[in-house]
Amino acid sequence: MADFKRYFPIFDWGRTYDRRALGHDLTAAVIVTLMLIPQSLAYALLAGLPPEAGIYASIVPILLYALFGTSRALAVGPVAVVSLLTASTIGQVAEAGTASYAAAALTLAFLSGGFLVLLGLFRLGFLANFLSHPVIAGFITASGVLIAASQLKHVLGVSADGHTLIEMILSLVTHAGDIHVLTAAIGFGVIAALFGVRSGLKPLLTRLGLNTRLADFISKAGPVVAVAATTALAWGFDLEARGVALVGAVPQSLPPLTAPDFSPELMRALFIPAVLISIIGFVESVSVAKTLAAKKRQRIDPDQELIGLGAANLGAAFTGGYPVTGGFARSVVNFDAGAQTPAAGAFTAIGLALAAISLTPLIYFLPKATLAATIIVAVLSLVNFSILKSTWRYSTSDFIAVFATILLTLSLGVEVGVASGVVLSVLLHITKTFKPHIAEVGRVPGTQHFRNIHRHNVETTPSLLTLRIDESLYFANANFLEDMILNRLSRDANTIQDVVLMCSAVNEVDYSALETLETLNTQLSEMGVRLHLSEVKGPVMDKLKHTHFLKALSGEVFLSQHDAWAALSAGTLQANPA
Amino acid sequence: MADFKRYFPIFDWGRTYDRRALGHDLTAAVIVTLMLIPQSLAYALLAGLPPEAGIYASIVPILLYALFGTSRALAVGPVAVVSLLTASTIGQVAEAGTASYAAAALTLAFLSGGFLVLLGLFRLGFLANFLSHPVIAGFITASGVLIAASQLKHVLGVSADGHTLIEMILSLVTHAGDIHVLTAAIGFGVIAALFGVRSGLKPLLTRLGLNTRLADFISKAGPVVAVAATTALAWGFDLEARGVALVGAVPQSLPPLTAPDFSPELMRALFIPAVLISIIGFVESVSVAKTLAAKKRQRIDPDQELIGLGAANLGAAFTGGYPVTGGFARSVVNFDAGAQTPAAGAFTAIGLALAAISLTPLIYFLPKATLAATIIVAVLSLVNFSILKSTWRYSTSDFIAVFATILLTLSLGVEVGVASGVVLSVLLHITKTFKPHIAEVGRVPGTQHFRNIHRHNVETTPSLLTLRIDESLYFANANFLEDMILNRLSRDANTIQDVVLMCSAVNEVDYSALETLETLNTQLSEMGVRLHLSEVKGPVMDKLKHTHFLKALSGEVFLSQHDAWAALSAGTLQANPA
Question: Is A527 in CB contact (< 8 Å) with chain B?
């Protein structure tokens, strides 16, 4: 029973649900619903899907996440980066706007949901750790640029395409003569208004005496006002007849029951992209959920989050949606608006369902340029090239990873970009440990402390070479240690009689390193030099005990470097009374 | 000039070359030449090339290695594993026995040589460190099995094919009815004789009073005797007429000047295999060279070895050969026979050149079954499944890497096998660091030592949580640390006021980990808990100094854990006088 309940966090917060929480949740739901209507339509457009797919993707998925998710404030639905990934993936197997395109989007959501649920059941959420922060930051920044560029065609009223920044720009330049002035006026008008609201309205309202939170909410309602205003304009002046592209007819219905396309060929083609979308969506969602939970000293369970997000995606697959995840902007609004429990999400779903059956006729007159403009303003807040500067200052390899991710995402597309970023950060990490930091140490006079002979004033004994290894020993760096010691010995071949490896920072010795230590022991023996170890950690010692190495070792294993010094420097000093 | 000389180690050993060294080198050359004649022919057969290609691949490459290589005893030429890789690679782009097959082998040698020289010039030899010992051992064992299986068709006198073990066995079973009895008699006769010589002759000769070294050399001459005897049989009894496959006509000439096929399409197809062959050949060769050098307290320079092996392969590409590397068996024979300098290699090359122009008419009558039998006996000594047992005992992840390499090499072929082994060992290493060992520590009473509270009897203070992190902090494990601390705090939310991270084993903090520490600092601050660091290493501190993290840190950075204990436990004890 306890185990069963683990998969239904609703039993946890449901027990204590009261009228106060209900009031907070209802308020938050109204605000989030207003925000989500234009956003859902816009992201569906970005994904290359009909606008209603965005609304549908925000109803059942939210309900399922409310049932299975552990975050109290996360708002699940279509988000910018996942919509872009969807467009880029499905664009390779179907033509945008066709029925097979929409069916493939369902398949993608199904694969993504299934994969997330499996990860969650097997508690494999830690796999998301392969994505380093700089790779994520670089990817999101580059995606923001790509998304903004992809929406320019709607703002300008031209038909253009392309999956990379260069393709998009070239295509726009080719079609520069076709710019539709009225469309562009609406598009740039909305962009200017939204930026104006963001930077000017909030301070103005605050100065007029409104409290900060209310001023904040009014500013965030900007997109809703822009949608309403331009829809009214389009209807009043019959802008469709003047060539402005409108959203057009949207079915007036609740989310339909849909079946993904299960053809094996399509499933195979979409599998890898689905894995990528799942992991990127999961990482984004979990970081938002963690941040919000920490503010209220709540905890989220990453493995249960996988199940919650997986269920949401499976829900999207069967109700006309497409891949979803927890969004940053909407979750923050939900949190700030006072949402106490996932019930707020359920109420949002009801609000969107009402919108789907009542407001859709009005959406006919909504200009596409308005939606594109809201997307551009939203994603430009994701673009943050400062990660380049801060990684540059901190570490070269982190900079290389973020730079390559941005460059490759912009030039070769989102999938190649993020995949290269992951592979590169793993390889760079391994490469860093190829040449571990190894310090020759001596004793700080009068103490039991041993420090780097190049940084400190320490005592040494000519016959004793002590090396502190500042890295775990494994296949990638074992050779380096061997070469380094043999080179060092060839310099002082005749004086050194004992070599001590101080292993206080060696957390692991893998099989390759064990073999290298065995070889080294033999090589040193043949030169008449004894090999010793000191300060070997418990877990490492436990493993070494089962090997022949310790039996074959020409020297001893000392508990502390001080013991090694006491035993070896005394003996040697007698032997070399220089 | 010094830099120029670096690339020509011959200036190093050439200066002191004398008559004594000459005598030793000449003796070694005669012995190695005798060994190499049958071996070169056999490995060419294994590579799917005409027999003379093996001889040619042993002449100019040896001379070039003598000029550029740093090992005094390494014998370069065709080796079993590289021959198998060549057959498997070229078999995908050309039909064995055709002119385009031979030309593609030259291209492969050219690409391989060029790649090795480039690695050497840029001093990138450390890249070979991506191959872990278990992966190499598993790969060589599986290759030995594959090679032996691939030669069975020649021993049985049937035509069979296949690149994986199952394909080979199925193909042999299908052709079981075609077994040529006389061929099989020769083949199994040679195998039995060679195993007999190896296990029985040497002890016998020693017992008869010969010294061990001489007995060893006579035993190693087994293949030469088998070749001579079966060639005589084939000639005397006209075995060709009785259906025994012979080597046939071999051109009687010095290595010809040849040009690789430089077509871009072929170069592209062979590029990745060439990289693989280069690295595997390099790793095998360097480990042999290192072992032999250490016996005489000599050193080899891995980067210069790349140039030596690269030059040898470029030589092979232009003189009718195919990819070569330093072989284990021949190098040991060379060393044991007393070779002092690379001049021994040069003399071997002259010996083989003489053989190429004088002995080739005799080779006509050599049965292919004899060559196949010598290959089988030679490679079975490479097969050593005990690596499975020893890794199983030592560490699960090393076992997984070696098991997967063996299994995939046998079932999917050599290239997939070794590539999977490399990727797997990298991923397993990273995965191991996902959940780093983190110990909660307390003070050993009356000392300045701090140990794991679960392993030792130590003092703790309720308000102070000290965690020793036994791993570098980077993107793959930063989240784990954060989750672990927050979970620990949610258990003792009200008593803990200070958290100290003891960083004595943290060799690196990458940008992802830095961001996680910043987040953690903020989260703890909001809970009223201070975050401290202790025993941060010099290089890590150098990097942290340039960040905002240290300024934002709610607690302090203590030089030693003892200082942290002194400052925090005292204060807390006053605040919590329980």
Answer: yes
